[in-house]
């Protein structure tokens, strides 16, 4: 694809990821090639200075997508045409042969992170590493924001099913990435078909209000016709949406039409807790004791937690999930921390960072409860854990530009989130604003 | 592309947009095909029930992208394989031949909107229209959220240049769409190269702190070397980033290295207003009276407005722009409003809508200041404007499935936003929370 020549066309999907990049990465490259500093050996580090909105932990997500995108970070004829408009010939020639040839270490996808955790460490020449900044941050910031919000929702749902249905409230290509991040964080299923295709996530969905409204004639609405058709087409295990008109009447008709083996009813509006109780009682009285109740409609982790006491079987979450529940970006940065073995760091106000290539480990009690994130310089041995259990957090992801074989996959990442949540001290799962669940200590 | 057969691969860019869709659109289709209601003539309408966060206006954006995506909403072999897992054979066969063949009217891209404005009106059979819900909302909700935030920033910048540099804080494919929406709303340029390629938006960018830090040796940092190289490679008109170490020293070195014809200096941290004043004074004293000051670092519309009194030449805006400055989605919905000529509407609590296919016009005084948005049923004549100027807001976008020729392009949309902001009553441009700038009146 990247080597085809064709007229620019906004509708063409370009396989190359090389232009998903800020222009200044390329002007820096041009300048660095001019004075030979381009060849200096560098480490860039991805980390978050803080967790958003008083969150107590973050979830690393996007690593798998980033490694796929990295393989397509190549400049074909079409990409070179664009950059040639502002770059000198030497730089354009250098880009023609570009592929990342360095090493990347990082946290496992699905691991928790805290302020200062060195989530990704990219090593190679300045030239080959600087180009990856924008792409790496776009993917990690987006996916980690969604996964971090999703994990709080899963935790609040306390074992009940959670369905991601936010596609309509985010960019059309961010939608399948959001589904992936939500599934990674423990969501049960997604409404998004592209996520089903790309990532094999279980798909779900039955009907919207439009389907009920469609069954309207000049003499008025015919909710029963809509339900009857849906059950005939999708089976008695389907979920009927009962709140288009009157909910009590909707439930009555649903069970009348489908019988007591009806799979589920969905309520998308109103005071969801009160309605769930009423509808459960009504369903039970109608003999539909196994019919599940699905709630949706402006749910977030706080609403989910407040509904814990109610007879709910699954939660459908849209807007608040795909917008990170108030934190739509994880705020990670990609910082140069080492040049030819010398630690470097910006000194200007409020944006300090710590120089040097780093490693990290997480310390836990014998019960498995974590107590501290320790970040240390890679040139030093790991600090003495003082009798605590220790887990090294960074694994090799890329060696000499090639993805390391047998990296953890989406299922592994999902399992790791679940383990991570269990490992937190109990305060760490509180939804209220607070300090990070464990402190991060830098050992120089 | 859609008709190629290949193994599922998360890294392949699929040109078909058909799976950027919620599963329930397709199960509703299957059920509607089963009882013939699929062929009923319907109108679906896109509108926002409210403006987010006390905003006073919204900006319609994404229409052009939606019409491009619509042309690729076709089910090839790969898409059919996925949907065949949960759909009956008849529905799959129907999808094989699917193309939208109906009509779409809507607001011009770049026009302002208010609560209840019928931004898009999609007419055709239920089957062909229902499938477009998710894609239409994903695109319009994303792009309108960004454009609506961007317009407030442009308005606050009061004629000074505004640069979109938020790619790293949003999904990698949402980034170029965000650049487009920002440019449409009046931003001057973007850092995102894919937006340069796809939409021809002016690109910009020179260097990050990493480039200065790269010029560090065992004896310490060499800021002057970094500046010298950058000026040599990018010309004296470049913008030097002066806040890696000490800003005053950075400015001194910048002018020493580049001379008084230096294009610009960028400040990315600290108390930006105070620093802008100090740096302007210092630049002027050094004879660099034409050197521009670019500010960046966590700017939003409020910070931009607060900096109006300072000697700033351009603002670089990242996170707050691509996250919609607190409103990352526009919250538009896609509702069935008419079936075979009968108006339909959901009755459940807090989510009422008004049935019937609608049109809209905007009334203005002879000065051009708008006073009211009037929404009326399409079957009725336009209401009497009572001596006010009247502008019909909906134009034909698609006829029998084909995009209408010579639709307004991105430049037209940009001009329309600028006109729209001028047309608002002065309260409409206030950044504080409040009521919509003009009321929306529904004439039944």
TrEMBL record, chains A, B:
It catalyses: 5-phospho-alpha-D-ribose 1-diphosphate + nicotinate + ATP + H2O = nicotinate beta-D-ribonucleotide + ADP + phosphate + diphosphate. Pathway: Cofactor biosynthesis; NAD(+) biosynthesis; nicotinate D-ribonucleotide from nicotinate: step 1/1. Coiled coil: none annotated. GO terms for molecular function: glycosyltransferase activity; nicotinate phosphoribosyltransferase activity. Transiently phosphorylated on a His residue during the reaction cycle. Phosphorylation strongly increases the affinity for substrates and increases the rate of nicotinate D-ribonucleotide production. Dephosphorylation regenerates the low-affinity form of the enzyme, leading to product release. Its EC number is 6.3.4.21. The keyword Phosphoprotein applies. Residues 163-357 form the Nicotinate/nicotinamide phosphoribosyltransferase domain. It is an enzyme of class 6 (ligase). One of its GO terms (biological process) is NAD+ biosynthetic process via the salvage pathway. Residues 19-141 form the Nicotinate phosphoribosyltransferase N-terminal domain. One of its GO terms (cellular component) is cytosol. The keyword Translocase does not apply. Gene3D superfamilies: Aldolase class I, nicotinate phosphoribosyltransferase. Keywords: Glycosyltransferase, Ligase, Phosphoprotein, Pyridine nucleotide biosynthesis, Transferase. InterPro entries: Aldolase_TIM (IPR013785), N/Namide_PRibTrfase (IPR041525), NAPRTase_N (IPR040727), Nic_PRibTrfase-Fam (IPR007229), Nic_PRibTrfase_pncB (IPR006405), Nicotinate_pribotase-like_C (IPR036068). PANTHER family: NICOTINATE PHOSPHORIBOSYLTRANSFERASE (PTHR11098), NICOTINATE PHOSPHORIBOSYLTRANSFERASE PNCB1 (PTHR11098:SF8). NCBIfam families: NAPRTase_put, PRK09243.1-5, PRK12484.1. Belongs to the NAPRTase family. Catalyzes the first step in the biosynthesis of NAD from nicotinic acid, the ATP-dependent synthesis of beta-nicotinate D-ribonucleotide from nicotinate and 5-phospho-D-ribose 1-phosphate. This is Nicotinate phosphoribosyltransferase. It comes from Antrihabitans cavernicola.
